[in-house]
DNA sequence: CACCGCATGTAACGTGTTACATGATTCA
DNA sequence: TGAATCATGTAACACGTTACATGCGGTG
């Protein structure tokens, strides 16, 4: 729901048109998650379908502005007041992958861990570099959120390795 | 792709039928991500469509076994050898939400941060409790991965608060 | 018998995402 | 003039997810 709710939140601030929404989104979140323009329009259609926004007539030079409705404003307010994902975290591919690797024959868990740690460390380096290139405060916070997550991932990988070295294959429940 | 690849990996180990796949998946990853049985069958259809698995005839008592193909085995091997997500991390709703909150008028970022921290701390407590209830090693690792991630999220929220207290509204670029 | 768990499946929907087509405007 | 950018939109698809229908077998 990230895209949908983001666009809704931006429209709660002011009426905007499609291209503007894409630009605003990327200006605020940085270049980590580029937003395909097409998706903005499909999402706007769906928001309209759900009665959360309304297209207002063509204002001036060929720009089709969208306006938030009362229901939309309520949904946005609700989004701001409630925390993200109290329960039901999205499936984590890496966690699943390792849970399977650990319980599977013919898969070298140690290698999987090593490859992943190397990749994540590379990601952290890239993030650190792109952090220096940020201009907006919000953009920097986004990059740092990814850094914190990557760092935690590395720690977890280390933890896995340590646990597995203590409980080698054969001793496992 | 988590579900698709997981089922493929399980079928790389041995031919299995739908219900068995659901059971195996949940036995190994725990109760965090329950897998709707229906999804197993739709996923099996899509894997068949893509030529990665094949239904073998009804073996014995009403069980429809699926078997991995050569292409499927190659895909599974590829999955094991490559790291997850080198670039292109999935959109993080919380990070996006805060990036918008910081740049938006009429949104009380401090409250958003506080609500989120409380929710995440509650999640951590629940995870810690469910960690004690794990029997399988792999299951425990999954729960711990969520714990590490939640812990990092709290640290990031603290970081955001600290950054925002230094750069109050009005001084922002 | 009725109920429950096992087992297979289907239809429908939701979001995310891309590829493509189409024009207008700007600028070298 | 031609290329690039702005701007709108559509068609198609992928995956995830749920709700529902169906049948079989055991058990109270």
Task: Give a verbal description of the structure.
- 2 copies of one chain form a homodimer.
- In chain A, helix 1 crosses helix 3 (37-49), helix 2 (18-29) packs across helix 3 (37-49) and helix 6 packs antiparallel against helix 7.
- Chain A has 7 helices and 3 strands; from the N terminus they run αβααββαααα.
- Chain A has 173 residues and is mainly α.
- The mean pLDDT of chain A is 90.
- In chain A, a hairpin with a 3-residue loop joins strand 2 and strand 3.
- In chain A, strands 1-3-2 form a 3-stranded antiparallel sheet.
- In chain A, 65% of the residues lie in helices and 9% in strands.
- Chain A has 2 domains: 3-81, Orthogonal Bundle (Arc Repressor Mutant, subunit A); 93-171.
- At the A-B interface, helix 1, helix 4, helix 5, helix 6 and helix 7 of A face helix 1, helix 4, helix 5, helix 6 and helix 7 of B.
- Chain A binds a DNA duplex (28 and 28 nucleotides) through helix 1 and helix 3.
Average pLDDT score of chain A: 90
Number of strands of chain A: 3
- What share of the residues of chain A lie within helices? 55-70%
CATH fold-level topology of the largest domain in chain A: Arc Repressor Mutant, subunit A
Q: What oligomeric state best describes the polypeptide chains here?
A: homodimer
Query: Which shape of chain A, going by the Cα principal axes?
Result: elongated
**Count of alpha/pi helices of chain A:** 7
Examine the secondary-structure arrangement and name the CATH architecture of the largest domain in chain A. Answer: Orthogonal Bundle
Number of domains of chain A: 2
Q: Structural class, from helix and strand content of chain A?
A: mainly alpha
Record the strand order, biggest sheet of chain A.
1-3-2
Rg of Cα set of chain A: 22 Å
Most extensive interface between two protein chains, with residue counts: A-B, 74 and 74 residues
- The CATH class of the largest domain in chain A, by name, is Mainly Alpha
Low-pLDDT segments of chain A = none
| DSSP strand content of chain A | 5-15%
From the N-terminal CA to the C-terminal CA of chain A, the straight-line distance is 39 Å
């Amino acid at each position: 729901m990230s895209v949908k709710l983001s666009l809704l939140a931006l429209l709660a601030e002011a009426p905007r048109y499609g291209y503007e929404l894409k630009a605003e989104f990327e200006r605020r979140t940085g270049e980590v998650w580029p937003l395909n323009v097409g998706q903005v329009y499909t999402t706007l259609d769906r928001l309209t379908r759900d009665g959360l926004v309304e297209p207002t007539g063509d204002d001036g030079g060929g720009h089709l502005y969208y306006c938030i409705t009362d229901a939309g404003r309520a949904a946005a307010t609700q989004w701001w007041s409630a925390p993200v994902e109290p329960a039901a975290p999205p499936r984590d591919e890496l966690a699943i992958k390792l849970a399977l690797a650990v319980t599977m024959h013919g898969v070298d868990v140690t290698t999987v861990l090593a490859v992943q740690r190397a990749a994540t460390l590379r990601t952290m380096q890239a993030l650190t570099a792109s952090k220096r290139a940020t201009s907006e405060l919000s953009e920097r916070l986004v990059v740092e959120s990814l850094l914190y997550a990557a760092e935690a991932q590395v720690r977890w990988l280390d933890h896995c390795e340590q646990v597995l070295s203590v409980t080698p294959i054969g001793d496992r429940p």
